[in-house]
Each structure stands twice: as C-alpha cells, then as structure tokens.
Amino acid sequence: MRRAFGILAAAVLLSGSLLSAHESFRIIGTIVTFDKWRLEIKTVYGEPYSVLLQPSTPIEHNKKPSTAKELKAGRTVVVQVVGDTPYDADLYIASVTIVPTIGAARAK
Prior knowledge:
- The protein has 108 residues and is an alpha+beta fold.
- The chain has one domain: CATH 2.40.50.320.
- The protein is 17% helix and 42% strand.
- 8% of the residues are buried.
C-alpha cells in the first residue's frame, strides 16, 4: 500500500512539473478567416497567427458565453494560448474573447 501511494505521489509531482513547462500567451488581433475550426489572426504588428480551436474552446463576448458563429472576419479577438513559444505549431487554445474593434476608442 505504501509503495502504491509513493508511486502515485511521484507521478503527480512529475506531471505537475511537466505541465508547468509551458507558458501562457495572449494574442490580440483581427480575425482574417475562420474556417473548419482554424482561426487566422493578424495582430496590430502585422504578425499572422493560425490557431486550431476545439468545439469545447470557451468563447466569450461582452462577458457572456458565445458560440463560434460570432467569429467572423474583421472582428477583434483576444486569444489565450498555452505553449513553449507563441509561434509553436501546436498551441493549446485556452480561450477566445471577442472585444471591441482595435482603434474604436480612439475614433471617438
């Protein structure tokens, strides 16, 4: 019994250290295209990002849950991703938030 508990404790500690090896990044930009769960984003600096969403990815708009139907070209989004770098091909998408258009506050 002690041995099983020791092995379980070691596995939990090891898995926690492996998960913490990834960092969280925020990508802010405008949707270029959204097709077949692939979201193409262009940041204000002109950097293109391509991320793959899952049907279970949380999407929020006006602090309320939303659906993927709201992800349309031209909308500004904040995408929270997890990976080694923001340029990884296999970024994990933690969440997507639709926000007011960049520059809308300056236009007033």
